[in-house]
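Observation: inputs received (chain + flavin mononucleotide).
Thought: call the complex predictor directly.
Action: predict_structure
Action Input:
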Amino acid sequence: MRYPESFEIAGHRLSPPLVLSPMAGVTDSPFRRVAKKRGGLGLIVTEFISVEGLTRGNMRTHDMMRFKAEERPIAIQIFGYDEVRMRWAAEIAQESGADFVDINCGCPARKVVHGGGGSNLLRDLPQLKKILTEVKRAITIPMTVKIRAGWDDKSINCVEVAKLIEDCGGSMVTLHGRTRVQGYRGFANWDLVQEIKHNVSIPVSGSGDVLTPADAMRRFDEIGCDAVHIGRGAIANPWIFRQTWEAMNGLTPYQPSPREMHDLLLEFRDNLRETMPEKGVIGRMKMLSAQFLRGVPNGAHIRTAVLRSQSIDEMEPLFEQYFELAEIYGIDAALQSARDDQAELAECGV
Ligand SMILES: Cc1cc2nc3c(=O)[nH]c(=O)nc-3n(C[C@H](O)[C@H](O)[C@H](O)COP(=O)(O)O)c2cc1C
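Observation:
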């Protein structure tokens, strides 16, 4: 099997065909920079940004849009309902220097859906058409769209939506093959990615449950998608893009040493401290630690202690302990991907 070396969005060639999937509360600039530095990333997408916040001058929302040159190529993802605000927000994203504007039509969160945006747009195609038409008219950079399979099992309409996106001038469609009602349960349906691929001529990327290089390669092989988005798998392992790219090229995937993993955490801390108050830094360090400090036999109690800590000073010796254990026992990939994060995060009050 020859894997694609790149993919193209409206004449912009991006390589490798691997994308950091947008994740609210995760893919902010400090995390994006950490991931990008590990290599193998062809495109980065920001966490979703509210058009209400952007167009009403909310400074926190505007801060979310900031990125550094080293993060390019980058898509800024926006969400909302009103086509005038969507258009205006897309203009703001373009002015901020984004390479692409990505429209969110997949978020299942109640608050977003009640506002009419996210996956709600999958059941309001006239409004989606208005939004896409307005945004496309307003910007000169390419517009891409990320969708879900449909609202629920009985209304799977992603192929129809993908065609609408193409008709309205969208330059790429990404499918996370779960329905809104499904949330994150079960598995993403990649057959739908293939069905979309057969029905549109713009590039198609797939998203959902890619946790290892082999998962991504299987999708290229079986589905024939142009790119693969990786979300949660990149939190646990920011090297996943590099490893996948190496595996796609017949090389042995790079295995970071415990020391490098430790350095990554500290680098993330330093990135966070550039713009965030210490309380925020603690929360974000816990978020990463919950998934990142996995795979060391007998290391779970250290991860739990990190999640319970009250300060970064309290966390740092725990990181030392964890990576010392990692040096001794190694990291077990099976343990690394066995996750029950929500329960653990809730238990630790994160
Ligand atoms: C914490 C979290 C936040 C997310 N936020 C967004 C978002 O802001 N925009 C979006 O389009 N998708 C969002 N997603 C969906 C992911 O981009 C991705 O499509 C989904 O998690 C499936 O891929 P994965 O199994 O590789 O994580 C989010 C997912 C998670 C877990």
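Thought: report the result.
Final Answer: The two ends are 43 Å apart (CA to CA). Residues 258-347 form one domain.
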